Every structure is written in C-alpha cells, then in structure tokens.
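agent: user wants the structure for Outer membrane protein beta-barrel domain-containing protein from Sporomusa malonica. delegating to structure tool.
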Amino acid sequence: MKRILAATLGLVFAGTVAFASPSVDYTPGAVTVELGSTLNSTFNGKGAINDSVDGKSGFKYAVAAGLGDNLALQYKGGHFVSEEFSGMGHTVHGISDLHEINFLYRVTPEISVVTGWLQNKVSYNTFVNEAKVSGMHFGVVGSKKLDDKYSLFAAYIAGKESLFWEAGISYKIGQDTYFNVSYAEREFRDVDLRPIGSPVGAQEDYKLKGISCVVSSKL
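agent: tool returned. relaying tokens verbatim.
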C-alpha cells in the first residue's frame, strides 16, 4: 500500500510544464498554442509515505489568447501515466490530470504577473479513491531576449498548497514558432489520498523535478 500511494501521489507532479514562454502574444485576438511533455521526471514523497516513482508517458498543452491592454487569458492541461509496477498482487499504474486557468498581465516588456486557478485529479485503477487538489495561485513570469533567436525565461507561481518554478531557454525555429526547454519543479502540500475501503486518508507533501520540452506557435 505504501508504494501504491506514493506512486499515485507522485503523478500529481507530472504536470510540470513550461509555464511562461516568450512567445505569448498580448495583442487582442492573438492566439498562442503550446504542446509538449516532460523528460526524466522524478518525484520525492515526504511524510508518513516516503517513496519515488518514474513517469511513463504523458502530454501537456496550453492555449493563450491576447485580450489587449497587456492582458492575456491562458488555459493549460496535462495528462500523465506512471510506470507499471506490482502492488497488492496486481500490475498497476496511476493517472494524473492537471487543469489551469490563468490571467497574465504584462507589467513591463519582460515581466508579467499571473493569477489563476488550478486543479489536479489523481486516479489509480480501482484501489485508491480519486484525489483532488485545487485552489488559486499567484506569481510572476519573465523573459529576457538574448538575440534574434534565443531568450531566457523563468516563472515562480505559488498557492496555499502548491508551488511551481522553472527556468529555461527558448529558441525561435520559425516566424512565430518557438522550442522551449526548461528545468522545473512542482510541489503540492497536504495531498489527501484514501484507499478504497479505508475510513482515513494519508496527507503528504510531494515534489517533482524534470526537464520540460514544449513547442509554442502563434496561430
């Protein structure tokens, strides 16, 4: 049971993504789309359950619409699956689904503030009840153009039970298309999972670290 709970909770963090790339366009009606995944993801559980598990597969996506007056609306999503392993006499895996809705306000050409809402749902075959973590988060994102092709970018977003930060580099591969690579960490605190048939759950803190690769393009 310890490994089952740890593996499932670890998937919460497979949603680590390139949160802010230099390609988001704040022009009214401009639409930017992103698609990618995370490589070599690992997580650590801290608390009564201490274990680790690797991610197997997954994808992430985002759509940002410019609203004008230095404001943009963004939706982000991700779906991830863990490696299979033996637990409770079964071959099992976990699934994580992450959703975010954010407003970005550009304070300067290089810095934007972010406010939004996120929800992550974790399911694990039929052995653990679906766990849900949701709430508001706030933070700042920024980018620094190095030359006509390369830019650096970073983000720090925090909520009551969540924390996300990343730093990376963006490479312009087309007129309105970018390839973004970053190192990122995502944390969730006081995650409550309850095994099927158990009257009590287990609260844990978890962190995921990984390399995020995302292609971003303006439509």
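agent: one observation worth passing along. DSSP finds one helix and twelve strands in the chain.
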